[in-house]
Specification:
290 residues
Length: 290
């Protein structure tokens, strides 16, 4: 079929994956080796392979790893100033995105942390989880990667309505918020306030950045911010959760369109099982008045 991209996977020594594809129009992503405590060194190599396969199958990136770009391939035993080391630097310089990660332990829980960095502006997306076994960690990898590998393309509108530049004049006024928010008021000078469906008030700040706007929670966490999770879970989130953030890149038809970045939680009863910082979902606000 015309235009179809056929990926080729090759498993090679050291747990690296080479992903080749015909198209060069997609951004390049480099997955750096994860750090891991000694007891999980081998399992982490498997983890890296699964992440690389998932990113490749997701189809939005040309995937490579340090040392795979250039004519000189890496072999074991080379010194740090070898041609292979220079090839690793070439990989980094050609990349638009980098994924890093670590596997550690806190008490009897395995801690996985991953981060995606957009090199053009330093934007970071971080996700993390806590697990009782490495098998449990691997079983919960897909939803973490769904957040980590998400790109701006998913928020791009497909409609034909005229887009308008986002200005302070446009932002000032009242908005219907996204899920969990009853109403938002944005004021001049980069300030605002949200009324949540729980009745709680959240102070906001905003900054116009390029063609878009970033809005973030500027008041301390309250348990009512996390309604309808159980009260004891909400109390723990007050100390754990990062401030909520919205990034809108499109204004059309009276609507702001973009993403919301927040802390997601998985729990059983009154016990938190998993925390995912930097959880991302699409967000849309509708303007209802000045």
């Amino acid at each position: 079929m015309k235009g179809r991209i056929l990926p080729l996977f090759a498993w090679i020594v050291g747990g690296l994956i080479l992903f080749a594809q015909e198209s060069v129009s997609k951004p390049v992503m480099v997955i750096l080796p994860f750090s891991a405590i000694s007891e999980y060194q081998e399992e982490t190599k498997t983890l890296e392979k699964l992440i690389a396969a998932s990113v490749s199958q997701e189809g939005q990136f040309i995937l490579t790893l340090p040392g795979e770009i250039g004519e000189v391939s890496k072999t074991q035993g080379e010194s740090l100033d070898s041609p292979s080391d220079r090839s690793q630097l070439e990989s980094l310089f050609s990349a638009q995105y980098i994924i890093t990660g670590s596997v550690g332990k806190l008490g009897n829980r395995i801690i996985l942390t991953m981060e995606r960095i957009k090199l053009s502006d330093g934007q970071k997306i971080s996700v993390s989880g806590r697990y009782t076994t490495f098998e449990e960690l691997l079983s919960h990898l897909p939803p973490l990667l769904e957040q980590l590998v998400w790109t701006e393309k998913k928020a791009s509108p497909s409609g034909s309505e005229a887009k308008e530049p986002i200005t302070e004049e446009l932002l000032i006024g009242s908005w219907w918020g996204d899920r969990g928010i009853e109403m938002v008021r944005l004021f001049s000078g980069g300030k605002g306030q949200a009324i949540l469906t729980s009745g709680a008030k959240m102070e906001l700040s905003y900054s116009i950045q390029g063609q878009g706007v970033k809005i973030w929670q500027s008041s301390p966490n309250q348990d009512r911010f996390y309604h309808p999770v159980p009260y004891k879970i909400a109390q723990q989130l007050v100390d754990i959760a990062r401030p909520m953030e919205w990034e809108f890149t499109i204004y059309e038809g009276g609507k702001l369109k973009g993403i919301k970045r927040t802390t997601a939680v998985r729990y059983e009863g009154e016990t938190i099982i998993e925390i995912i910082h930097g959880s991302i979902r699409e967000a849309e606000w509708t303007k209802i008045g000045r």
